[in-house]
Amino acid sequence: MSLVIAAGGTGGHVFPALAVASVWRAHWPQAPIYWVGVRGGREEKWVSTAGWPFYSVPVRGWQPKAFFRNLTLFYKLPRAMFFTHRLLSSLRPKVLFTTGGYPGLLPGIWGIVHKVPVVVLELNAHAGRTTRWLSRWASCVYGAFPHTQGLLPSVRYAWVGVPVRFRPSDKVRYSAEEAKKKLGFAPESPLILVLGGSQGSSALNQAVASCVSAWVEAGASLLWQVGGGRSDMALPAVVRQEPFIEDMVAAYTAADVVVSRAGGSTLGELAWWGKAAVLVPSPHVAEDHQRKNAAYWAQHNAALVVEETDNRALCEAVLSLLRREELRKQYGQAALQLARPDAAETLAQVLYQLAYDLS
């Protein structure tokens, strides 16, 4: 009685699925999980480290600004479909779970054609293409927001929230001072955590670079996830860049202010931790979903939101939170109200019931 998870591409698609898989394994260790993703992607390392079998499908996503490159999809797609069919026919899953994105499309289609229950988790306020294409025939679409734009009224939809990769015990693993010391920062200084997503963001990095001196002058330290490339600028000793932050428990615990993109998965983590944040939504994503995500948070007074081209507004927004502890607490509490801590448990139970036809 197996579960197949089809998720990959970015941490935003992978980490929520890992959270659901962890709950499944804790409850039903005898029921295997198989993971389908993209070879060479970061998910291969994350999934293998977690101990689940990883299978790659030779597929890649549509590139909006690469017309000629996209033409190759027309001859690569049949091969990928055949490979997916052969793989999943051998795994014989009883239920299939995907967080959307291009790695989830072909496995989702296979599940629908072979009458295997398909559950989709949409993490953004506007459904992506894979979610929209699968939603008509999926058993259910679960969402990170109370309402998700872009879905037909007939689609079975339920609000579940964002499954996060943390446990309640993580909130008490360190004190804020202990976490700062572990990360190599002075415990008495406020810490700004900068997150551009698991792959980083060059535009956000440039905006942050323009603000570093002002933030440091205000007495802050900076832990900065930059993705693939480091800045060429000379950085003060209290600023540290990392391609990818491994110990996110320490990072979130230590952070007084978070500067972040507005992907659905990251917002779910900010809510779970109850962190004061300045959101800088990317204007270059499909369906402009990050701005829509950020707008929902702004409507609930759960974060400050600035455009990535407005460096001055970014500097001032962070400084306003650094200077006013009460304001940080206010935004942190509002963010906490948006959390759905039982999301991973709920989805694991749904998947198990579908696998065993208990619904």
Q: What would the keywords be for this entry?
A:
alpha/beta; 7-stranded parallel β-sheet; 13 strands
Describe the structure.
By secondary structure, the chain is of the alpha/beta class. It folds into two domains: 3-162 and 341-355, Glycogen Phosphorylase B (Rossmann fold); 168-337, Glycogen Phosphorylase B (Rossmann fold, 3-Layer(aba) Sandwich). The protein has helices spanning 11-27, 42-50, 67-71, 73-91, 102-113, 129-135, 176-183, 202-209, 212-217, 248-254, 264-273, 289-299, 311-323, 325-337, 343-355, and strands spanning 3-6, 33-37, 54-56, 95-98, 118-122, 140-143, 157-159, 191-195, 221-225, 239-242, 257-260, 277-279, 304-305. The strands form two sheets. Strands 3-2-1-4-5-6-7 form a seven-stranded parallel beta sheet, with helices on both faces. It has a six-stranded parallel beta sheet with strand order 10-9-8-11-12-13, sandwiched between helices. α5 packs parallel to α6. The model has no long low-confidence stretch (mean pLDDT 92).
CATH superfamily grouping of the largest domain? Glycogen Phosphorylase B
Number of domains: 2
Q: Note the main sheet.
A: 7 strands, parallel
Q: In percent, how helical is the residue content?
A: 40-55%
Low-confidence region ranges: none
- The structural class is alpha/beta
**CATH-defined architecture of the largest domain:** 3-Layer(aba) Sandwich
Average pLDDT level: 92
Count of β-strands: 13
